[in-house]
Amino acid sequence: MEQTLQASHLVKRYGKKEVLHDVSLTIEPGVIYGLIGRNGAGKTTLLSILTAQNTHDAGTVTYGGQPVWENEKALADLCFSRELSGQILFGQNTYKVKDYLLAASMYYPRWDKAYADQLVQRFGLDVKKKICKLSKGMMSMVTIVLALASRAPITILDEPVAGLDVVAREDFYKILLDDYTETGRTFVISTHIIEEAANVFEKVIILNNGQIAAVENTEDFVASFSFVSGREEDVDAVTAGHEVLHTERMGRQKGVAVRAARAVMERAAAGRDVDISPVSLQKAFVYLTGEEAHHETA
Amino acid sequence: MTGNFNDATSIYLQIAAMLEDDILRGVLLEQERVPSTNELARAYSINPATAAKGINLLVEEGILYKKRGIGMFVAQGAHDKIIAKRKDAFYETYVTSLVREARALGLTKEELKAMIERAQQ
């Protein structure tokens, strides 16, 4: 039975460097979450702690109210499909794809071999190949097969589309939605390729510098931003009192991104000649986590 | 239903608009079943919750109705309802902005009328 996965006040340090600062997050059942954050934001660290594959220095992670650490019952429900690498601790990753999947089949109690075989075929993967001989895209395909075939009620994928070409990426989202509409299980998917995934994520988690910057319904989140442009005086008047996240200037023209819904800006415009346009998820992400945001919080 | 999404409006509104287009064009007939949220989600690679939001919008407006356990259907009179709704929207989005732009350009009422007549020919 699917239950809530909850992190409370997580702190993680690597040596003296604190990489997660007081992170609290609730993963509700039956939702596809997108996890986005810049390089080094702490995404993989957070995901590995959520699934008890990494230790943490403070805080708790619970599944259905029970701690996940060394909790066999909870771990049977959680799948974290890590990014694969050609290099492992002691040299090259010489496991064959089929060995990797065989190991997964023993680890995950709900493993669906028929589904794994079907996906391997769909991706055209050669299971006899060693992992260190795979291209980046093929490694991603292996992590996708593992994640989906695990049939885990909470399935977490770390950068599943890294290195995949656009056709394979579209195929991945189709396969994901096919599975989701059938099973309704929970997915958490981290990605750097934001725009094309935006419509797939019901909720988006934004991790910035080891802190949660937002956990919101994707559409509501995107709709909470507007871009207002026009003559400087007009733009300033319309956006007065709202937090400006980003400014662009060209001659007398000024454009600013604000954290305010389009309707709010339209009311504020009241006859002033400004253009009000929506902002994409990718832009909203950049405004929240880009250089300017760093300076402001610094 | 065809086409791609644009960035200007929410996806659920675009889903609703696409279903309306299909009803207007006779692709979907009154009393006929419409694609389910899961079918829409798969066809357009969108989250089923988004597709459901679009469908629910049309249910609220009386354009679609739910048959328990079977699915969503096009309501009787949906075609006329959509036409009426779009006429209102046409006034709001096109006519008022047309008049505003005409004013900004300093066009007189007569010049604007002449232009509309020319376009109609």
Automatic annotation (TrEMBL), chain A:
**Chain segments annotated as transmembrane:** none
Annotated Gene Ontology MF terms?
Answer: ATP binding
Which InterPro entries does the UniProt record give? AAA+_ATPase (IPR003593), ABC_transporter-like_ATP-bd (IPR003439), ABC_transporter-like_CS (IPR017871), ABC_Transporter_VariousFunc (IPR051782), P-loop_NTPase (IPR027417)
Superkingdom of this protein's organism: Bacteria
| SUPFAM superfamilies (UniProt xref) | P-loop containing nucleoside triphosphate hydrolases
Q: Which UniProt keywords apply?
A: ATP-binding, Nucleotide-binding, Transport
- Which parts of the sequence belong to the ABC transporter domain? 5-234
The record's listing under Gene3D superfamilies reads:
P-loop containing nucleotide triphosphate hydrolases
Please identify the protein, giving its name as recorded: ABC transporter ATP-binding protein
UniProtKB/TrEMBL annotation, chain B:
| SMART domains in the cross-refs | HTH_GNTR (SM00345)
UniProt entry keywords in alphabetical sequence: DNA-binding, Transcription, Transcription regulation
Q: Which residues form the HTH gntR-type domain?
A: 9-77
Q: Which SUPFAM superfamilies match?
A: Winged helix' DNA-binding domain
Q: Gene3D superfamilies annotated for this entry?
A: Winged helix-like DNA-binding domain superfamily/Winged helix DNA-binding domain (1.10.10.10)
Record bears the keyword Lyase: no
Q: Does the keyword Metal-binding apply?
A: no
By its UniProt entry, which InterPro entries does this protein fall under? Tscrpt_reg_HTH_GntR, WH-like_DNA-bd_sf, WH_DNA-bd_sf
| Protein name in UniProt | GntR family transcriptional regulator
Its taxonomic placement starts with: Bacteria, Bacillati, Bacillota, Clostridia, Eubacteriales
